[in-house]
Structure formats: C-alpha cells, structure tokens
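Budget justification note: compute hours in this period were largely spent on complex prediction jobs such as the one shown. Inputs:
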Amino acid sequence: MIKSKHFKRTAESTLLALPAFIIYSCIIIYPMFSVFHMSFFKWNGIPSSPMEFVGLNNYISFFTDAKFQTALFNICIFILSGFVLILPVSFFLATVIQSKIKAKRFFRISYFVPQVISRTAIALMWYFLLYPEGGPVATLFKVIGFENVNVNFLGSKVWAIYAITVINAWTYAGFNMLIFSSGLTAIPNEINEVATVDGASKFQRLRYITIPMLKGSFQLFILNCVIGSITTFEMVYATTGGGPGSASEVFGTLLYKNAFTYNNYGYSNAIGSFLIIASFIISLILNAVFSRGEKE
Amino acid sequence: MRRKVLSFVIIAAIWMCSMMACSNSTPDENTESKNTENGNGGGSTDKVTIRILTRYSNPDNVREKYFMDMVDKFNEENPDIDLQDISISDENSRDTKFKTSVSSGDPIEVFNFLGYAANVDYVENGVVTDLSGVMEEDLAWTSHYIESLFGPVNYGDYGIEGIYGIPTTPYGVCVFYNKAIFDELGLELPKTWEAIEEAAPKLIEAGYIPMAFGAKDNYRGGHFLTALSMKKYGTDLKDALIGGEETWNGERTVELISYMEKLYSDGVFGDNQLAYGADGELAKLESGEAAIVFSGSWNIGTINTFENASDIVCKGFPYFNSNPEYKDMWMGGPDDFMSISSKPGDDDYEATVRVLKFFTSQEYWEGLYQAQNGAGTYPVTFDNVIEADDITNQFNEYYGNAANMIGEIEQYDTMASLMDIVRTELQTIFADDDALSIGERIQAEVDAYKGN
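Corresponding output:
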C-alpha cells in the first residue's frame, strides 16, 4: 500500500517534470552533443558537403596551435582582472549603496547602467575614449605630462588585452555590485551591533563578520568570473576583433573565426566542446572547494 | 479522486504545451517549405518572400543609397514579391550572415558572391546556382556586360560548367593626392615609390601624413600587398604563391612585407594606423591631414562630395622606378557578383530571377550612372556617355591603360581562410612585428591546412 502510494507520487512527479526535461534536452543537451559529435569531423558548413571523420585531429590541432596558448594567456588575464579590478570595485560599490548615503538609489542605478547597454555600444564608446589622436584618455595623458607615451592601447599587441579587461571591469562592476549588495543585506544588523558594542573596529567587523558571511556571494562571483572569462567573446570581438594580429584572441573569437570566416566548423566545434567541458570541470572544482570549506 | 483528476489535467496541459512548443519547423522543413505553394516562409499567400544580401546599407554613400532606393522601387513595382533587404556594410558581418544561412539549410536567395577559387566550395556543393541557362534565354539582359568580368565566376578549371554570378561594380586600387599640399610645399605629385620616399620627410616636417593607412580594417594590408606585388613582380609572384612554387615566407614575399615595414618605420604612413580604418583615411584626406591616400575607385563618388574635392587628384598605384615594366599592372577587377541560391523548380525561383535581373539590368546601371553623374566604374558599357567628373576621368586614364589586373592574391587559393590570415598578419606590421615572422606565421597556417 505504502509502496503503491510512493510509486504513484514518483510517477506523478516524473510526468510533471518530463516536459521541462524534454524542452531542456532539445535546447541544451541535444545541441551540446551535436557540437561534441561534429568536433570529430572536418566540415565546411555547407549541408550538402560531406562531413569527413578526422577523429581527434581537430583537438590536436587546437591544442598545438600557437593561438591556443595566446588565448589561454588572455583568459588568465581576464580571470586575474576579475579579482584585481572587479572584485574590490564591486565590493566597494556594494558597501556604498548599502550605506546611509543620500541619493543611494541614484548611485545604485548609475553603477548598474553599463549592464543594460549593449556590448557593441560599450566597445564603440571606449574606442572613442581610447582614440590615440585627441581622444579623452590621450588628452589626459598629455595634460599630466605623458606626451611621449604611446596611448594606442587597443592597437598595441602588448596592451590590447589589458585595455579590454579594464573595459570589461567597467561593464561588469555594477552587476557584481548587486551580488555583494544582496549578500550584505542578508547579514543581520544585530551581529554588527553586538560586535560594535564589544569594541570591534570597522576593519575587524569587515574581516571577521562581513567577509565570512558573504561566502555565498564570493562563491557566486568567483564562478561567474571564471566561467565568464573562459567564455568571453563579445567585448573582445567588438573592440579589437582578436587583434592586432592574434594578440587579443580568446577562445570565443577563435571559435567564431574558424566557423564563420574559415568555414572550419569541425575545428570550431572542437573549441566549443573544450569550452563546455572546461566550464563544467571548473564549476565542479569550485563547488567542491566551497563545499569542503563549509564542512570544515 | 479529485486529486487524481486534477493531476491528470495538469499533466495533460503541460504535455500539450510542450508538444506545441516543440512543433516549430526545423531548418530542413524551412528548406522544404521553399517548395510549398506559399514560397519561402511568407506569411501571406499572395507574396513570395525573397531576401537580398549585399554590403549596400550606408545611406551616406551614393551608390549604396541608390541601391536602397531601388529596393523600395522594386517592392512598389512588384506587389507579388516581398523583397527583404538584409544588407550589411561590414564585409565580415555580411559573410557571417551568408554562411549562417547556408549552414542552417536556408540560404539567402539573392546575395553578393565573391567568386574566385576561395569560394569554389559553394559552387561545387550547389549553394550557388548556374545562371548560364537564364543568360542564354535572355541575351539582351547581359548584352552590355564586359565579358572579361565573368572570369572569377567561371569554374571551368575545376571541371564545373556554367556562370555563377553577374558582375557588380568593377574596381581598381589607385591613389588620391591632395594636390594643394604638394603645391604648398612646391613638390611634384610622386608617381613612384622612390619619389614618395623622397617627398615623405618634407611632408612630415610640414606636419602632414605622407600616405594615410587605416590598418584597423585588415583588408587595407591585403590590398596594399597585392598592389605592391603587381608593381614589383607583375603576376609572377601571385602565380608562384598560388602554384606552390613560392612560399609566404619566401624571399620575394618577405621582401615586399619588409618594404611595407620600411615605409611604416620611416613614417610614410603616419602614426596610430591601427586606430582607424578606411573611413579614417578618407577623413584625413578630406581634412587635409593626409597628402596621399591609397584607396580605390569605389570611393570616387564619396570623394567628389568632399569640400576640397577640387584639390584631389587620382592616379594609379605608385610603381617602382626599378621596375618600369610593371607600371601598368593593377590590382582590380570585378568587386563581387550578384548570385542566387534558388534552383529551377523551386517555387521562389521565378521571383528570385526577377530580383536578380532587376538589380543587374542595364536600366539599373544607367540609373546609378546618372545618380553618380558618370563617376565611378561599371560592369557595363553605356550608349549615352555622361561627361564624367575630373577624378573619374583621371582614374579612367590609368585604368584604361592597365596591361593586366588581378584580385587580391589569396582569392586565387582554394584555402578559404587564407585571405583573413594574410590580412590579419599584415596588421602586425603596425604593431612592430618583423616581416620574416609574419611570413612564417602565414606559411605555417598554409602548411597546417595542406597537411589536414
């Protein structure tokens, strides 16, 4: 009797969840396996053209390509910029909008505005800001006495990727501000009040109360930062296109170019498969690290 | 009991919604729908929807504005066809749109096709339709076309019969000089590279950019290398590179890239080349910052609208004193072609051919000829010649004497990615990369392609 009831409940639950699972499979799972399947073939993107099975050749070509190393380096720069630029700035902004400052709502909206602007518009705006002949940044450099400094950041093989990370940080600081802000809101005021009564300084409250209790927010930030950096595409493509040369290539731009410029769909699917697997593994590792921290 | 009935109703409703959501047509069904009575996915039973993809989407450009106006005119005159203009100016974006449509099984019906060997895959696999039958049925349609322009869409060398596109505007790479600057400094217009190198220090000292180079658009490097190659080696280097007798890191190619590097390091191209593109070059010509701009006939119409247009003089791409035998060798030819993907028997084939004929008709070109007041180049000859502007006459004076003309070298290779690779690598000249490294990286890509 009990087993029968349990079976019925399980059957009902399964049937209710099945449509969503089917849709999810159609939209997410099937395309993923299709990408993975196609990564073992050489194909020029024309439906009537035969797909030639090449085994692991696409993966071998990708991992031995000099551009893979360049893209990997650039992704590391992106991840590093997340911790060096985005994390402190967005945390600071979160504390600002959580404070008793006047016009809090104005600051909250202002800092979030970059999130609602299209990436192409942001790239165009920063292109003009960084224009080396008469642009605001170039003019500022002149005014403060650095006339001889080459301010063509987006046109420099060395500095292009760093310039893009600054633009990226400007774009995403507001979004991450909200993540930290919601975390700060969840900290009960009483804890801080008790700590203040006990004589804890602002720094001590930040270090021993606020930061530990923001663990969930940090976890979310780190996951977004790492996965977002690995899969980044729009900002790089809209600013430099991966150039000059291949100096600012990332995996996303390599995938795009191989598919839509070079007609090398199998190879680009190999890059796509790599991105999916890498993102999955990194998510597992990060979740495991944070879960272990919780248990301790 | 009530709970069971409620559960059943909820489950059934969710299933029905799911099945409705999943029943949208797939790309294969979209392709098949071309053969339905309603044509290509058109919502109305009265109209056939035809999409046209070109690079003509800038209303500030005379030629492009004319095209856009003609789209409106076609729609007015053909109420049974819904012509959707999905054109986009940027070359890469245009190509991406086209390739995406092909990969999804729903190729755009009328499109700019680049032709040449680099695109033979699309012809071999039936994406591009053979037009020779239509041309034979209607000889008057292409009777005024310049026959040599059909070369890049004739794939006889690959064992494929037929003609796969109708030429659009032919082009020639040339240079535009701001004569006022040279007059101010008491200099003659330099027609050779040796003369340009001699004049450059004086121009730089006077605060001018000797020759603006908008390297942000990577095709500028590709064009420059091919044009330089024609003046230094004629068609010899191109034939050797495509035939495999010479490599991209070979002596002659590296010599050409080194020469570009020398011009860059001597300041001939000014500063910050990677900060601006082809539009920036024209802006510098118009503002008087640049003494020379190397460009092409496609910009004659735009330059004629400059305030200082009367100061602008057009001449052929500079040649080398040391190689006068190649003085009249040009980079140029048909810019691209208007082609179709619809096949005889498809329900939208007749409508597609009507669109194609409209935009490649003698009337279309005569209208453009009028709109541009005789400026620019055309794939057809005209019975009534308009007195052209000075810049067009200057261009034609050189163009008409061309001994030979080729498109960009990479277009002659079946390696589809070669053009972007060469253009992208040449950009690194302006990031202080050396010629041999550039040549080696290009050749490494060629070797990897041939090894796969």
